Amino acid sequence: MAGLTPYVLVVEDDPKMATIVERCLQRASYATEVATSGDQALWAVLNRSPIAIVLDVMIPHPSGIEVCKHLRREGWTGPIVIVSARSSPADRDVALRAGADAFMAKPFVLAELLATIEALTSRSHRIDT
Amino acid sequence: MKVALRSLSLRARLTILLFVGTTAVLAVAAVALYLDVGAEANSAVTAELRVHAADIAATINQSPLRVNQSPRRVRGVVSQVINGNDRVVYPTDAGETPLLSPAQLTRARRHELIVDKSVEDLGNQARLLALSIRKGPKNGWVVIAATSTAAPHRAERRLLLLLGVGGPLLIAAITGTGWLLAGAALRPVRRMAREATTISLVEPGRRLPQPPGNDEIAELGRTLNQMLGRIESTLAHERAFVDDASHELRTPIAVLRGELELTALDVDDPEVVTRGLRSALEETDRLIRLSDGLLMLARADAGQITATAGATPLRATAAATTHRLPSRDGIVIEISGDEVSVLGDSSWIEEIVTNLVSNATKYAASNVQVEVAADEHHAYLRVADDGNGFAPTLLDRAFDRFARADLVRGREDGGAGLGLAIVASIARALGGAVRAANEGPLGGALVEVRLPRAS
User: Do B254 and A17 touch (CB under 8 A)?
Assistant: First the structure.
């Protein structure tokens, strides 16, 4: 549970996949929260803004792409890493056009996911300060 | 010839057909008209000569002419009266020499004689008609009437000229009109063909321009657009299936990979290693189940599941299979009904029972009911639970592949959404059917499989 500390929101409907990502992030000292649907994700961001979002595309309503578009439309500027079981260039294009900062196809290397989040959050932090 | 025609456009072929048909019809009509007009003109000339000759013959018989008295003149017709000695009896414009030879006069005394020849004062084209007087004192005399046929011949030539010039012009006009009409009629088809070359599956929803009206071309447009809709729908369905299959295969692989990656970071911690290996095994089993399910569906699609493999006792198979399945704490499974045999190998029936009972057990609150029933031709396997039932949005596609019941029933123990799809595929392959409903006998979901009875 993230509590009041800055946290990374993991939006993933597969509990095992969510646990793996959480463990990876927690090893790097990130607090995490998990949302298993698009609605839960939007509610979580509204409730307390995360420092980054790891967002699966194929989640229950609305989809990860719709969540990403909605957040950008609402002015949320934090880093979004979209992870997807779909790996075609078109899927990557759709994700980036929706406002994602990075796209990673499953199965991905956890170290790479971590490095991406670290890079995006530090850049985001520099911009904020 | 046929091959050459096939290589032409439909418009060109229609025009050629119109040209050939018009030419044939007009040629026949022109020949018939020419022959009829010619025959009519000849017939009129001959009739006129016959009347005139008969008139002279009657005059001679009834009131003999005096010497030096000529027969009555008719404009444009000359005549001679020849006696039995082949001498001209009365002087006429035709002179003193008989217009016919002695042999012709002899023939004329036997029957009416018509001769076309050149006659002085009548020109090169003249017709002569000779009649003989067969009774009275002038018996054996011959009356000759002659007239020019130049005028009828000129009329025939004018008609020939008119047909020769006007006919081709008429054919050209009809063919040209046909070419323009065919072009106008086929313009919507060309527009549809041009549009069709630009339609691709990248832009779903694009359709051919629909010709207005309710004719054959408009019907063709509607039919093609409906076909495009069906193709799009099928492709969208297949794309969704591939997407789902990709997701369901990649996710456990991603979990497996992540688990091993995390475990490798803490390889000295026995607890982490044990947990990682256990999770890896579970994901491997998940992949095996998924590949088995996809394989089963592929076999059903390939027609490898048939009802010819013998008969299987449905209740006994349902009971044995249910007992082999892993139990879930607090869930009671009740089996009821009389024994009935169904067509199909026992392995297919076991697959149906396994998927239905596993599914019901997963979502039941406490009870699952497996009922076997039968009518004259069919056996029924009904599996009901006391869970929340299917979500209304899922009910219609409960048997679709990757229907993902977990989306509404909770993901924790959710499968890939292939179980009911496998049940439906096997049942249909065996000649049966499936049905899903809510508010079953236990208040939750009910799935019914109908299978043909073995005789």
Answer: yes
A74–chain B nearest CA distance, Å: 26
3-state secondary structure of A103: strand
Please give the Cα distance from B304 to B309 (Å, whole number). 11
* Cβ distance of A85 and B265 shorter than 8 Å: no
Q: Is A26 on the interface with B (CB under 8 A)?
A: no
Q: What six digits make up the tokens of B183?
A: 């072009």
Report all structural domains of chain B as residue ranges with CATH numbers, in order of start. Answer: 13-155 (3.30.450), 216-299 (1.10.287.130), 307-452 (3.30.565.10)
pLDDT tens digit at each of 455 positions of chain B: 666 777 888 889 999 999 999 999 999 999 999 999 888 888 988 998 998 888 888 877 766 555 445 555 566 788 888 888 888 887 566 677 888 888 988 898 888 899 888 877 777 788 899 988 877 777 788 998 888 888 888 888 899 999 999 999 999 999 999 999 999 888 888 888 888 888 876 677 788 888 888 888 888 888 988 998 888 888 887 877 777 787 778 888 999 999 999 999 988 999 989 988 998 898 888 888 888 888 888 888 888 887 766 789 999 999 999 998 888 888 899 999 999 999 988 888 999 999 999 989 988 999 999 999 999 999 999 999 999 888 888 888 888 887 764 444 334 444 667 889 999 999 998 999 999 999 889 999 999 999 999 87
How many residues in total does chain A contain?
129
Inspect the interface and report whether the beta carbons of B258 and A60 lie closer than 8 Å.
no
Q: Is domain A7-116 annotated with CATH 3.40.50.300? A: no
Q: Can you tell me whether residue A124 is helix, strand or coil?
A: helix
Owner of token pair 């046909």? B178
Distance CA B70, CA B72 (A): 6
